[in-house]
Amino acid sequence: MKKTRLLLILCLASMAHAQEPADTHPALTAPAGTDPTTVSFPFERVQTPTAVDLACAGFVSRQLVPNANFVAGDLYTPTVTKNSNGEVVYLAGKGYQVGQKYTVVRELRDPNRYEIFAGQHALLKTMGQPYSELARVRIIDTRSKMAIAEIEMSCDPVNPGDYVIPYVEKPTPVFRPPLRFDRFMPSNGKLTGRIAMARDFDSEIGPGVKVYLNVGSNQGVKPGDYFRAVRSYEADVHDPTESLSFKASTNEDTQAHQAAIDPNMFTKTGGPVIHVRDLPRRAVGEVVVIATTPTTSTAMVVFAMESVHLGDDVELDQP
Asked: Which residues partner with 104 through β-bridges?
């Protein structure tokens, strides 16, 4: 009886061990000059883009979308102006055929002209016109002057005046497995760019949010490339909000020689001077490219240690 009980215990222990998830994270080779910890080299928890993320990402392009074909109304025009999955819309223009699929896009303008970071408007102007991708529609009737289409998949409500362009399925990039995230890695000398804008004009950005970079296929960027979002403390000095903390005292009354931060050293303290330019650059997140134009890239934040900001630098990350 004892042998039977022991055998049962061993079998259960073996089964439990087999059900334990395997450690899929690659071993970390410590770079010279580091002693990795979970703070400086945390494991990434990556949010992989889905088919909906790919279809609804939007883009920024110097080549304007043709405006000859557009949404003219819907079944209950003008009472209803916003349409989504399963509803029908009327499309003005030419060239429609039954069964064809189209993408509904919107040429965007930001009603809030406030610059999130200095030079944002000038940077966006060099990148081109931003567009959102709203829905995919299929032509179901062409017997009238306007084509009738059914919305097969919608990301946001479709409005009269939104443009329609031929649907092109985006290939799914090959996404890498989670890695250790080197939070304080110095510049690797690879391609750099900047996060100029986010989908829906967001400014505080976390995992799942789509962002637009000022580098594209002309610089060799392709879907599936990863970029590390990085920020220097000098960038915080120039941020209208973050800079406020630099103007506040960081000292304790018990410190005989109080430190001063050099950009805001209004009085001599006789203590140490903290040079902001010498503070380490910190990585704040990781983005993966899901589509490109010659001069821009659409990417998605897949991992973040803190909020990613518009204006943050990005650096090509090829581990």
From this structure: 135, 164
